[in-house]
Amino acid sequence: MKKEETSANTMGSRIKAAREELGMSQSELATALGFESATAISLIEKGERGVTTVLLQRLGNVLHRSVNYFLGEPEKVVDVKVALRADKNLSDDDKNAIPRFIELAKKKPVAK
Amino acid sequence: MRFLGSSNLRRRNQLQNDNDIPDLGPRKKAAKALAQKIIKAAGITVAPISLQRVIEHLQETYTLDVRRIEAGEKVSGLLVVCKEVDGEYATIGFNGAHPWCRRRFTIAHEIGHLIFGHACHKGGTGDDSHNEKEADAFAGELLVPTAFIKKDFAKTPNLQELSKLYRVSDQTLTIKLMDARLV
After folding, report:
1. CA-based nearest distance B75→chain A, Å
2. Residues on chain A touching B91 (C-beta within 8 angstroms)
3. For chain A, where do the domains classified as CATH 1.10.260.40 start and end?
4. pLDDT band, very low/low/confident/very high, at B175 (cuts 50, 70, 90)
5. In which band, very low, low, confident or very high, does the pLDDT at A32 lie, cut at 50, 70 and 90?
6. Counting C-beta atoms within 10 Å of the first and last residue's C-beta, which end of chain B has fewer, N or C?
7. Residue A31: partners with Cβ closer than 8 Å, 6 or more residues away
8. CA-CA distance, B117 to B110, in Å (whole number)?
9. C-alpha R_g of chain A
10. What's residue B127's pLDDT?
11. All residues at 6 or more sequence positions from B81 whose CB lies less than 8 Å from its CB, including other chains
12. For residue B49, what are the contacts with CB-CB under 8 A and spacing of at least 6?
């Protein structure tokens, strides 16, 4: 094991951190991913069970993280949610204005 | 900055989903109670309600930015909630071309969506009429608190003057007066 591979820096510990931040139990995560029991999650988080690329993507979806997060790389905005107040029959200009605004909103404001 | 209270929000959302029954009564009541709490916490005691102060109060808890959206007449506004690895931040957009009282209602409405955690992944116009009604109830109470309007209506029983005082549309004020059983 290389030096930087401390317990806080493994993929398993990152999965665990993301799960705990959502207040999810191991068995809840197991159910969300279609595993029979929480044991699989426990093993994955301890690094005793491998994670396939497909599973990694599904983990990203369930835990609202980018795959980069699990790999320990800097993560950009991972999740954008929107509530829009507008009429139904928007013009194309209006429809374009909304994603433009969302892109603006994605740039993090300076902390106040 | 951390998105404080996010776990509480999440818990409340779960509760709301579990109780997703057609009757909006309890949710409307809760929305109004929350608006009253915010006004009190922001230290606002008289009309007009300063949205600036409401926003500054919320910024103690949320990373929140409010800005204009350049769009046509049909877009009132929107709420964008971005999640990052180390927190969440929200931006409210309002149509700067709309009349002042309408902009105020839009901002108040979007604050409601933020607090109730209504933002979702579907980009389209909000079709969840429950969420919309809840945000409207919140906005109505935030801009025209029942306790305030009862006092002011007793002093000045005049729709136009009151809507001017509260910086809301005649429509918003009429709904409020009916809701408070003053007319």
Report:
1. 4
2. 101, 104-105, 109
3. 3-70
4. very high
5. very high
6. C
7. none
8. 10
9. 18
10. 57
11. A80, A81, A82, B88, B89, B90, B114, B119
12. B39, B142, B143, B144, B145, B166, B167
Contacts of A65 in chain B (CB under 8 A): 85
Quick one: tokens of B65?
């930015």
* Distance in angstroms between the alpha carbons of the first and the last residue of chain A: 42
What is the tens place of the pLDDT at every residue in B82-139? 887 677 889 999 999 999 999 999 999 999 999 988 877 754 455 567 888 899 999 9
pTM of the model: 0.66
Which of B31, B53, B25 is CA-nearest to residue B40? B53
Question: Is B76's CB within 8 Å of A105's CB?
Answer: no
Nearest-by-CA chain A residue for B1: A111
Instruction: Please write the tens of the pLDDT for every residue from A56-74.
Output: 999 988 887 878 888 887 6
| Residues, chain B | 183
Q: How far apart are CA B41 and CA B176, in angstroms?
A: 22
Q: Does domain A3-70 have CATH number 1.10.260.40?
A: yes
- The question of ipTM being above 0.85 is answered as no
Strand partners, B120: A82
User: φ and ψ at B64, to 5 degrees?
Assistant: -135, 135
Token readout for B150 is 């009862």
Count helices and strands in chain A by DSSP H and E runs: 6, 1
Residue whose pair of structure tokens reads 């994955």 in the numeric block: A44
Token pair, residue B121, equals 């992944």
What residue type is assigned to position A13 of the chain?
S
